[in-house]
What we know:
With 66 residues, the chain is mostly helical. The protein has one helix at 2-48.
Amino acid sequence: MTANIDDLEIRMTYQEAALEELNQVVIKQQDQIDLLIEEIRRQKQQLEQGAEFVRPLSEETPPPHY
């Protein structure tokens, strides 16, 4: 019986460690999602205000093979 309890405690310890690691991954992903959402909002706002994201051909530098 004691061996069973020890086995369960060991399993629980590994599960807690895995759960904490997964939690950190989720937190990091959420931070990245928040940054991407903010970037999309910023670009959308610039576009609505008439910002140009494509430069005119006269301002573009020619490719290196020219």
